[in-house]
Amino acid sequence: MAVTAKPGRRACFLPDLLDTRGYYLQIASLASMGASPLMNADCASKARVEAFAHALHAELAHRDVTVGIAYINWTDTEMIWGTDAQNVITEVRSQCPRRPARCIRRPLVAERLATAAVRREASVYVPAWLRVVQPVRALFPVVVTRVARTELARLEGHPATDSHRFARSRGEADERLRDG
Question: What residues pair up with 97 in beta bridges, in sequence order?
């Protein structure tokens, strides 16, 4: 079973989830749908989140447990403020089509997640237009690579384009905690 942490031991939430025939909502994002330059760690972790939720959903469906996945785009949080402080990320986001680059207000995200939980939805998309991305997500690597080839070449030499350095960097919220 995918939720087994060690042989013979279940994840700590699983007994209660099974007893209550509950609902488990896993938070993914647009990053789980396709790779994006300079966001390799986020994309990889969100793809793992998505795969975990799909596997758990299949494993627990016969026990009347519902597992949902929330696909959320850029949300107005401290984490996003931290990435926007990276000039190269601001530049890359400026090259995105208008809708994908727009931040979503936190209350809207919270409302939509609460509604999904009440309805025990298998998937929730915030904003709703993300739903239309699902059927074409296999095209992302080709499109992203084509755009990145031009845009990243233009940004070559900028310190933040070292994706390994960016993947290790800490967000603004972490810096506030460390400094405060």
Answer: none
How does 14-33 read in b/e, with b if 16+ C-beta sit within 10 Å?
A: beebeeeebbbbbbbbbbbb
What pLDDT score was predicted for residue 88?
55
What are the φ and ψ backbone dihedral angles of 92, each rounded to 5 degrees? Answer: -65, -45
Q: Is residue 132 a contact partner of residue 109, using CB atoms and an 8 Å limit?
A: no
Name the DSSP class of 136: G
CA distance 107 to 56: 28
At residue 67, the 3 state secondary structure works out as strand
Statement: residue 6 has pLDDT above 60: no
The single-letter DSSP state of residue 152 is: H
Per-residue confidence (pLDDT) for residue 22, from 0 to 100: 93
